[in-house]
Design brief:
mainly alpha, 153 residues
């Protein structure tokens, strides 16, 4: 596949993940359960989440297209699948089922998976590695938000 075809493919898959995750969380961020939680003082306003995830998934799609172009191994594709499942399932676990501890475990695992992408393939993608940095940074923030809710509620 050509790079632009891979970019389109990963855009479709990654935005499908956002859509599925959004659907699975129901009214999550506007639910009474979430609104009464004691949230971290650094919790951004709601609109930031949508904007951040849009940018993250665009960058991640370009990252994955370039990585698969260089290394379409079963490990890379399997790691991507694990990332997809963890990303989508966190929404359901945290917002729909209110399993804060399990949500924290899932988001930590997701952060570790993204860290593998970030560090393991740095030499392969060189400066294009920066395309996954927003995802990693956002997950660090999201993990801290999940942990805060666990600790202070």
């Amino acid at each position: 596949m050509k790079t632009y075809q891979l970019i389109i493919l990963f855009l479709i898959i990654n935005f499908a993940a956002l859509g599925i995750g959004s659907w699975l969380m129901g009214n999550g961020p506007t639910s009474e359960w979430y609104l009464i939680q004691n949230k971290a003082p650094w919790t951004p306003p709601g609109w930031v989440f949508g904007a951040a995830w849009t940018g993250i998934m665009i960058c991640f799609s370009f990252y994955m297209a370039n990585l698969v172009k260089q290394n379409a191994s079963s490990f890379v594709l399997g790691l991507f699948a694990v990332q997809f499942l963890l990303n989508v399932s966190w929404n359901y676990i945290f917002f729909n089922q209110h399993l804060i501890t399990f949500g924290l475990v899932v988001i930590i695992l997701l952060t570790l998976v993204v860290a593998v992408f970030l560090f393991k393939y740095k030499s392969v993608l060189q400066t294009k590695t920066w395309l996954i940095a927003p995802y990693f940074i956002w997950l660090l923030i999201a993990t801290s938000l999940n942990a805060y809710i666990l600790l202070y509620n």
